[in-house]
């Protein structure tokens, strides 16, 4: 064998791969491929909530606008659909509904002071009238003493900083009400209601 002939030994000629290099590349490539297969679904799952539309879902009810009046709020319940990041669920919710200026005011039962559940009535609460002279009290928070009138507006002596939240709604083709997400009001904008008019 000629000493200058290196064609049979790729390691000496600088051409080709050694067995060790070949196995390193194959195992490294296989590991990278497997890592990508495992990581890809995790990345998609991690960014999924960013692509979801927040608060765009409405929950169908069996209520008709004609069930409600402008004299006193009516306490009703419905199953609210909630999409929260990766969680999607239906949970029971209760609200108070009254008509005002040909629109429904679907009021949250959550006190705006510290988030307690307010108690409501279909008539003014005389036991609270002394502390809120000149203000009819229809809702009260038993925990911290917030008072609200029949439109969910907090009375001046209440610790609550603002009126009860309202819910968006829409009227379906069959005439029933579907309830959407809630929105905040202030004392100055308590009557501003972006929802559609009803008969």
Automatic annotation (TrEMBL):
Pfam families: Rieske. Coiled coil: none annotated. Keywords: 2Fe-2S, Disulfide bond, Iron, Iron-sulfur, Membrane, Metal-binding, Transmembrane, Transmembrane helix. PROSITE patterns: RIESKE, TAT. One of its GO terms (cellular component) is membrane. The chain crosses the membrane at residues 22-44. Its cofactor is [2Fe-2S] cluster. It comes from the Bacteria. One of its GO terms (molecular function) is oxidoreductase activity, acting on paired donors, with incorporation or reduction of molecular oxygen. InterPro entries: Rieske_2Fe-2S, Rieske_2Fe-2S_sf, Rieske_Fe-S_prot, Rieske_Fe-S_prot_C, TAT_signal. Residues 101-178 form the Rieske domain. This is Ubiquinol-cytochrome c reductase iron-sulfur subunit.
């Amino acid at each position: 064998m000629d000493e200058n002939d290196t064609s049979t030994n790729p390691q000496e000629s600088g051409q080709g791969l050694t067995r060790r290099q070949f196995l390193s590349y194959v195992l490294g490539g296989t590991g990278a491929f497997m890592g990508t297969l495992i990581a890809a679904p995790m990345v998609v799952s991690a960014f999924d909530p960013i692509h979801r539309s927040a608060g765009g879902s409405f929950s169908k009810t069996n209520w008709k606008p004609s069930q409600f009046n402008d004299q006193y709020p009516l306490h009703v319940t419905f199953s609210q659909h909630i999409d929260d990041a990766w969680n999607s669920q239906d949970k029971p919710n209760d609200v108070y509904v009254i008509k005002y200026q040909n629109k429904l005011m679907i009021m949250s039962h959550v006190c705006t002071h510290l988030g307690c559940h307010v108690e409501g009535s279909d008539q003014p609460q005389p036991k609270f009238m002394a502390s809120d002279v000149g203000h009819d009290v229809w809702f009260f928070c038993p925990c911290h003493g917030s008072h609200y009138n029949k439109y969910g507006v907090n009375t001046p002596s209440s610790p609550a900083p603002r009126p009860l939240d309202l819910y968006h709604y829409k009227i379906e083709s069959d005439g029933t009400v579907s309830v959407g997400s809630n929105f905040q009001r202030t004392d100055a904008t308590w009557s501003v209601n972006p929802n559609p008019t009803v008969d």
